[in-house]
Fold this protein.
Amino acid sequence: MKELQQLEAAILNQATFGSSPDPNVISNAEAAYRCNDASLILHYAGILDTFNGSGDTVAAPSGFVQGKATPQLAKHKAVKAYWDTKV
């Protein structure tokens, strides 16, 4: 789940801010997520975490409304049964 969260954030950061990790990182992370190799999944989770935290000083695009993170609200709204189901 940790890698999936970082992967989704990286995809959104790339789409919103135009930033990008190394060219193959997102596709490799997607492939790692589909495999059963926990160490590979955690490896890419770390790489994506670094990328996602690297642009904190970059200004948001015009019209982007920034606010505080609301992890408890997100957790409340999450459909946990979906995330806990292995596909």
User: Anything to note?
Assistant: Residues 2-83 form one domain. Residues 2-17 form the longest helix (16 residues). The chain has a mean pLDDT of 82.
